[in-house]
């Protein structure tokens, strides 16, 4: 029901050689190649300025000035995880977590407060990547933000020290399309102060209240409750994977909302054969029924594009 890092079936429709989330369309890619071609022709003729050639190249990605990477063994005590402008220390973090944060959460060097936990399935990672833990202590040249260090600068470290190479693929996959059910939505816009936004990736900031857009679970006997505060419906949809399918938000509802959902223990994602709004008396019996009955959101099967992060190559890190 909630997001899992599993791959869907399908043939790749597009391949993007980058860990970044920025996607260049075919048309934009064609224009870029065309512009580069013109620059080369005029450069050979000696009639184009150096500024024009440089403007066609992507900006240089910031890197750490120095970095120490050490694998944590067994019950090794984890050093503290802290950050300050220009300095980042991760204490025995799972490598897959580091990769997901570098390539997803902080990929642009910023954090989207309405979508702090983007979920993209990851393929190609060896088993050790999901179990190995590393202590990383790195220093930047200048006062870089925590989000920049945990995103683009960590990408550069993963490429240099772990020799990680990735690409992205866009495929057509089975999805669920989320719309507003008959009777309208059964949740309310988020009230100011109902949650605390993330502090841009700063590890030294501790939230006193419920974080915005992050699911919190609790139990009421056999019922599991899931609460979101200050979440957009696009981010909420991305956190749902009923029957292993991606959910696409087409409700047309903008803004941030507070959402409360309850499910029975071991409730299936989909209602069983013959069950439906009229025949199923329990609003907790399946995930899809719960969305409809409790939140006024309808899920319908369909086809849509799905993005995948593929790890082509990764090695255990080289020495410090």
Short note summarizing the structure:
The protein is of the alpha+beta class and 320 residues long. It has 8 helices and 13 strands. The protein has 2 domains: 60-167, no CATH class; 173-307, no CATH class.
Please give a structural write-up.
This protein is of the alpha+beta class and 320 residues long. It folds into two domains: 60-167, no CATH class; 173-307, no CATH class. The protein has helices spanning 26-45, 50-56, 95-105, 127-131, 146-150, 152-161, 233-238, 287-295, and strands at 12-16, 64-72, 82-84, 87-94, 122-123, 133-140, 165-180, 188-189, 216-220, 223-231, 246-249, 257-264, 297-313. The strands form three sheets. Strands 1, 5, 7, 11 and 13 form a five-stranded mixed beta sheet that branches. β9 and β10 (223-231) form a beta hairpin. α1 (26-45) runs antiparallel to α2 and α3 (95-105) packs across α6 (152-161). The chain is globular, with a radius of gyration of 23 Å. It starts with 11 loop residues before the first strand and ends in a 7-residue tail after the last strand.
